[in-house]
Design brief:
22% strand, 13 helices, pyruvate-formate lyase- activating enzyme, 447 residues, OB fold (Dihydrolipoamide Acetyltransferase, E2P), 33% helix, Rossmann fold
């Protein structure tokens, strides 16, 4: 007999891979399951009655992580069904349907049916049949100080290497009123920062009537929601419009931090990627941003080993990154995704060479991270303290508005509060500080 049928409610463990959008969608699912009477845990916990794995497919490595995670859960929890969802489940459902122990595969287009599917597994009436998951706001982000808020899904871009439009579909934006109410609720619940995210965030509002834009949304959130900190996630270089820059520079809740998707510093590679800008465009944008907002943290995504990237092209990427005052990198190896044009491009770079180039870029990224943090030694910065301590040192940890991770001593009741911390030491990626003051007027979140 299916072990789920014996329960009037059950224990569900939700395991999430990938981006902030996936994290948000898992929180959505958890919210609806809790409302439905289930006991929900986030992460890979033993003893659950059902495991939901929310997958990512941005690279071959994330595909492998998803397959390994599903098999590990099945091995460690014999008899517990596994439901697989997310982007990888959308583009390659047969990979998981062939795995014994997987009870169902629901891709992105089926996410609205997940609750009904879980109810059937537990032998319960489909109480949530009329609810649509993609537009369900979340009242809190349990066990997280910083809440993610998805405002946009899908992508209309045509990057030659990217499979995400196939997994997520065209760009769709949420109505601003729904977003404002969600962020206002999160602030009332005690969250101190909202990270506004989307699959292609810069497209926000173009599909709405009347037409909206990201800068207008951020201004509205800043003036109406009472959220102390607002942060935007990744944007393409050409989407850093003057209104967005003005919002970053002048809106009090705006965190001086922006993440830009560069991908390559070689114009030939950028053309093959179908990125729509040049290395010179990127250089100008970053320098103007730093001139306008001197303490701004600029992070970048960069890819190594795109087809046709010879040593000279790679060197141009390295030199561009080395020359600019960047705060950190996210480095990705090129991964040929079936069904994308780049998978069939000539002059594919050998995997060993891609790995070497990634390592070179990551070393540079570590130096950039250290150099950026070292600029703030002996300065007192507000740090929003996370809801758990650093496992190695036992210290409190948190982020400054410009995304410097800082560790420092202090009591548990400082968690989810802003503490004035003077930066004292920087050792590689580790930044240590000395606490000075509690910034008043905050409500502690105990989710």
């Amino acid at each position: 007999m299916n072990r789920l049928v014996d329960n009037t409610a059950g224990r569900v463990s939700i395991c999430t891979l990938g981006c902030k959008v996936n994290q948000y969608e898992s929180a959505q699912l958890g919210t609806l399951l809790v409302i439905g009477g289930y006991t929900v845990s986030m992460g890979e916990h033993r003893g659950a009655d059902l495991y939901v794995v929310n997958t990512c497919t941005v690279t071959g490595s994330t595909d492998a992580q998803a397959r390994q995670l599903v098999r590990r859960i099945i091995r460690l929890n014999p008899g517990a069904p596994v439901l697989v969802t997310g982007c990888y489940a959308q583009v390659s459902p047969d990979v998981f349907r062939a795995v014994k122990g997987v009870c169902g595969v629901l891709g992105q287009t089926d996410r609205g049916r997940i609750i009904q599917y879980v109810d059937r597994l537990f032998g319960r009436p489909a109480a949530n049949a009329g609810k649509v998951l993609p537009e369900w706001p979340i009242p809190s982000f349990p066990h997280r100080t910083r809440a993610f808020v998805k405002v946009q899904d899908g992508c209309d871009g045509g990057c030659s290497y990217c499979i995400i439009p196939r997994a997520r579909g065209p760009s769709r934006s949420r109505q601003p009123g729904s977003i404002v109410e969600e962020v206002r609720t999160l602030a009332r619940e005690g969250h101190r920062e909202a990270v506004i995210t989307g699959v292609h965030l810069g497209l926000y509002g173009r599909d709405l009537s009347p037409r909206q834009n990201l800068a207008g949304l951020m201004r509205e959130l800043g003036s109406q929601c009472g959220m102390p900190r607002l942060r935007v996630s990744s944007l393409d270089p050409m989407e850093l419009s003057p209104p967005i820059v003005e919002w970053l520079a002048s809106c009090p809740p705006a965190c001086p931090h922006i993440h830009i998707s560069l991908q390559s510093g070689d114009n030939g590679v950028l053309r093959q990627m179908n990125r729509g800008y040049t290395a010179e465009d990127f250089r100008k944008i970053v320098r103007e941003l730093i001139l306008r907002i001197p303490d701004l943290a600029v992070g970048v995504d960069v890819m190594a080993g795109f087809p046709g990237e010879d040593e000279a092209a790679f060197r141009r990427t390295y030199c561009l990154l080395e020359d600019l005052p960047l705060a950190y990198f996210h480095v990705f190896p090129f991964s040929p995704r079936p069904g994308t044009p780049a998978a069939q491009f000539p002059h594919q770079v050998k995997p060993a060479r891609i790995r070497r180039r990634c390592e070179v870029l990551r070393r540079l990224g570590k130096k950039k991270r250290k150099d950026f943090a070292s600029r703030f030694i002996d300065r007192c910065l507000p740090v929003l303290v996370e809801s758990n301590r650093d496992l190695t040192t036992g210290m409190l940890r948190g982020f400054t508005p410009n995304y410097i991770p800082v560790m420092f001593p202090g009591p548990d009741d400082w968690m989810n509060r802003e503490i004035g911390v003077t930066i004292r030491e920087v050792h590689g990626a580790l930044v240590f500080g000395h606490p000075h003051e509690l910034i008043s007027g905050e409500k502690t979140y105990h989710g």
